[in-house]
Amino acid sequence: MSAISLSMDQNWKQAVEGVVKQIIFHYYQASPSVRSASFILRLTDRYWKTLDERLFDSPVHYYTVLVKTIDHLLQFLQPSVDCFLLFERIEYGAKWMKKRIEIDMAYNDKGKCVIRKFLLEADEAGCSRYFACVVAACRDLGIALSKVEFYSLLTGERKDVYVDVSHRFR
């Protein structure tokens, strides 16, 4: 994953999403023995500095987003998880109409794939579209998908959507 280049035409959400991707990517690229709360804090310190505070509504907004994001990263990142996909775009669909989707993280759980999607704020319509695309992509690629986990880094909400129970978003 390349370094982040932030420009003033980005809004704060896009900038924070880029920083969060860097933090998560480097966290899971590290050896499980290195993964810890202090490692998350060091990564946050390293990458959060690249954000321009002027992208935010106010200094209070900047620090509120920082604190919420750190708190939820500390809750959501697990040292023992071994990813087989990490922020990778995969192609699926018919040869003449290929589609792409970015997989934030995929790991094996009891022989089935679990996909974890990190969001700043989860909206039901967006999660539903993502879920449908991931199910189609995994089906096309022959991947046995168990569930998709949605993690909201601003609210701390977590929602698991199981494939085995129903293919529709509930």
Overall 3D shape: globular
Pattern of helices and strands: HHHEEEHEE
Q: Can you summarize the main beta sheet? A: 5 strands, mixed
Q: Average pLDDT across residues?
A: 89
Structural class: alpha+beta
Q: Please give the alpha-carbon distance between the first and last residues.
A: 33 Å
Report the count of strand segments: 5
- Note the beta-strand portion: 15-25%
Q: Give me the Rg, rounded.
A: 17 Å
Strands ordered across the widest β-sheet: 1-2-3-4-5
Describe the structure.
Strand 1 and strand 2 form a beta hairpin. It is built from 4 helices and 5 strands, in the order H-H-H-E-E-E-H-E-E. The N and C termini lie far apart (33 Å). Helix 1 packs across helix 2 and helix 2 packs antiparallel against helix 3. 39% of the residues lie in helices and 25% in strands. The radius of gyration is 17 Å and the shape is globular. The N terminus and C terminus are likely disordered. The longest helix has 18 residues. Strands 1-2-3-4-5 form a 5-stranded mixed sheet. The protein is an alpha+beta fold and 170 residues long. It has 2 domains: 65 residues, no CATH class; 80 residues.
Keywords for this entry:
39% helix, 170 residues, disordered C terminus, 25% strand, 2 domains, alpha+beta
Summarize the structure.
This protein is an alpha+beta fold and 170 residues long. The protein is built from four helices and five strands.
Outline the fold blueprint:
Blueprint: H1 12-29, H2 37-48, H3 59-76, E1 83-92, E2 99-109, E3 112-119, H4 124-141, E4 145-152, E5 158-162
Parallel strand pairs: 3-4
Antiparallel strand pairs: 1-2, 2-3, 4-5
Helix pairs in contact: 1-2, 2-3
